[in-house]
Amino acid sequence: MKYFLPRKALYATGFAFITASVMTDACAQESYKGKIGKTLATSEEWWPAPVSTPKDAPNIVWILLDDVGFGASSAFGGLISTPTFDSLAANGLKYTNFHTCAICAPTRAALLTGRNSASVHVSGFSHTMLSAGFPGWDGKIPAQDATVAELLKEYGYNTFAVGKYGVTPDEDATDAGPFDRWPSGKGFEHFYGFLGSQTDQYKPDLVEDNAHIQPTGNNLNEDITTKAIFYIDRQKKAAPGKPFFLYYAPGATHAPFQVPNDWLDLYKGKFDDGWDAYREQVIANQKKIGIIPQQATLPENNPGIVPWNTLSPEQKKTYARFMEVYASYLTYIDAQIGKLVGHLKDIGQLDNTMIFLMIGDNGASKEGSYNGVLDRGPTARQLTDEDAVRDNLQRIDLIGTPQGSQTNYPLGWAQACNTPFRYWKQDAHSEGGTRNPLIIFYPKGIKDKGGTRNQYSHVIDILPTTLEYIGIKAPQYLRGIKQDSIQGHSLVYSFNNATAASKHTEQYYYIFGSRAIYKDGWKAATYHHPDFIDERVKDSASLAAIKRDFSKDVWQLYNMNEDFNEQNDLSVKYPDKLKALQALFDADATKYGLYPMIDWDDVLKRRIHKNGVAVAPAGGGH
């Protein structure tokens, strides 16, 4: 015989089940406090108290751009117009001493979890050929390191992500899953974007929720903005008072530089004076708006970067065009973010939304070679520098279009976009690789609108800042799994105190052998491969030629309080200080699970096919 509960009882039972399902993790570990008898009449029901979102909890939006550089946007003195960024900065706070991990996947893993990248197994990448079989390197974020989306979801937030995810292992990134390391398995209720590190802006490797879908034919950055607005509107219609968390991570401005036709000539002729003039103008702007010291000077050129006035007319024409398109790309993504911000204002949510804008996940890209890149096929890799310039000039009209499948600017412009720092993306030893602009906007909570903050901070600080401001403590357990400690430091202490001492006082860095350690204003660093290596390295003999012993790396020492852009090496003057910092790096590398150190040429070996030709990693680029 079948028994049926009355509808009213079903509703009550269902409500009780839903209530119990959103219990805190502390409650999940709590012993049952009811009474279980042999019958209902002799039993007493009990459910843990449901989680409630803290009173007046704001919506949270994290915006993470890709490959921008400290000196690109007008918000931080650059010559590329970013009116949305400017407006957010004018009504929020600019952080000038904020750091990332020097390359995309480690930065994203650290950001999402509030823990160092090695601690969450992403010292390198989640791509098969760029990961390794060691705890700090397997590319698989563990369940004990919950993401911000998992945490906020537990406290009543709806959670959405659009754009680049970048930390799903290649072997999981098919429609067969498993999906536990897709965004949906890491706390995001909806996702629209791509799982890898790079994708074509018009023919993206596109995913929605747990399945690949066909691209629309629009520019991807437009589509992710439309989708983000759709998610917000749908949620607000269903539950107007419920807060949301949006992770907005466009592919821009990572290669390929691709923008709609009506944006391509926005900067026509604006960069004809070249990268040296750009650097001079930007450092002057940065002093004027007070984000760098007044006595700051430009460092010497990075290796291989020649003065603009020594270039041929053909080089100047082609190189300037690459930068024109890049600038259009950045202004275009600023406009897309402007649509999102404008929509929040239109629906009455902007004043109740806390926005974290990180202008780059690392420094400007060093992956465009000295001449700029349109594609990376076998023919392109075998061109001489002279032939590469001629080939790019012949196809100059393709720069920025869908046909420019790998478009990236020459290294001279990457250096310029990192003004006033040396080096670039991948270079974990240098501020040019790790320092990025941060803007925090929240009208209700920030009194010093337009203020500048110089406290040292790192990408792992964004999650604890978010939690503290909302009034949430990271749980010891999440869905029955004991959680690792959050390693970042909240920045809330600095919101209304410009002179507060930095709470983040120690930080290690490591990418492909380049490494550094920061402690209380001092920094020790070493560039493991001082010579630029590109994809023209094709065979094992070449790899052997560039192999270097970690023990032979030369370390430098900087007093960052007096020398913020690393021009005065003090290693000879203060050998004991250098030795102490080297020992601290070793201790941190051990503590956070970085070892064994894995080298760029070790990575290249994984990219060598049996025919001796280097190929791009699965997932595309980095």
From TrEMBL:
Q: Does the keyword Amino-acid biosynthesis apply?
A: no
List, for all copies, the residue spans of the domain called Sulfatase N-terminal: 58-472
User: Has the keyword Hydrolase been applied to this entry?
Assistant: yes
What is the top-level taxon of the source organism?
Bacteria
Looking up SUPFAM superfamilies in the UniProt record yields: Alkaline phosphatase-like
Pfam families reported in the protein's UniProt record = Sulfatase
InterPro entries registered for this protein in UniProt: Alkaline_phosphatase_core_sf, Sulfatase, Sulfatase_CS, Sulfatase_N
Q: What keywords appear on the UniProt entry? A: Calcium, Hydrolase, Metal-binding
Annotated Gene Ontology MF terms? hydrolase activity; metal ion binding
Q: Which family does it belong to?
A: Belongs to the sulfatase family.
What protein is this chain from?
A: Arylsulfatase
This chain's source organism reads Panacibacter microcysteis
